TrEMBL record:
It holds the Pfam family DctP. It comes from Xylophilus rhododendri. Keywords: Signal. NCBIfam families: TRAP_S1 (NF037995). PANTHER family: PTHR33376, SIALIC ACID-BINDING PERIPLASMIC PROTEIN SIAP (PTHR33376:SF4). The keyword Iron does not apply. This is C4-dicarboxylate ABC transporter substrate-binding protein.
Amino acid sequence: MAQARWDLPTAYPASNYHTENIVQFAKDVDAATGGKLKITVHANASLFKAPEIKRAVQSGQAQAGEILLANFANENPVYALDGVPFLATTYAESRRLYDASKPATEKLLAAQGMKILFSVPWAPQGLYSKREVSSVADLRGIKWRAYSPATAKIAELIGAQPVQIQQAELSAAMATGVIEAFMTSGSTGYDTKTYEYIKNFYDTQAWIPKNIVLVNAKAFAALDSATQAAVTKVAAEAEVRGWKVAEEKNGEYKRLLAERGMKILKPSAKLDADMRQVGGIMQADWLKVAGSDGAAIVDAYRAKK
């Protein structure tokens, strides 16, 4: 096989642990294949913006790419499962949910000409707000960053004003007052210097979304069998490493935010109850849309608890 070259776009900064893990994956692939496969990682939405990456991989414009699964909830409810609040709130639960939903996810992606290489979670999602918040009522009318259908739905349920903002645009949106509150991980809060604009972080641990690194099925099939095996093995190692780093980084990011003036707060009992009520509505809505196939995934996940 002649040397193959892949482009792998991601929407996150080079300093983010997801990107660092992917860069390590690319180096390991180079080593494991003896230089037969070279992967160029394009960080921070420099090649394609976040919403464009899946289509780019599907069409072969990029051979591989990283997506936030929940961003594609409008395509299929299986993708939305990652953003359903309070369904899986610990890393162990998130892993079980991924295992339960992976066969259905793989089937959907295969029908679009793609394969999963590996998955890595974000930190549990918390609430950043310019205002102090003791209940959902305090969020009514607030300008709310929505980056996925799930976060837009939360805005609707709590009476906030949703504004579509991807991570690469987040700092500018905060600086100009376009948004005043949002839910995301500690890592995104740190990467985007949220602490310069917003001072309250409520550690709601509402859900743990995951990124998936995809490969175009034809690009993968074009590799010889030894190279395919090497890529598969290195991808499995990247997944194990990524999950471990994600869990380790969760506490570290909260510490870094606090050092830079962010107040790390436990939600009040009322705020927690309000947010869980939102989660209950969204879980019920998801099951209605996902039907018997969705119920089977949730049943398989809960059976493993």
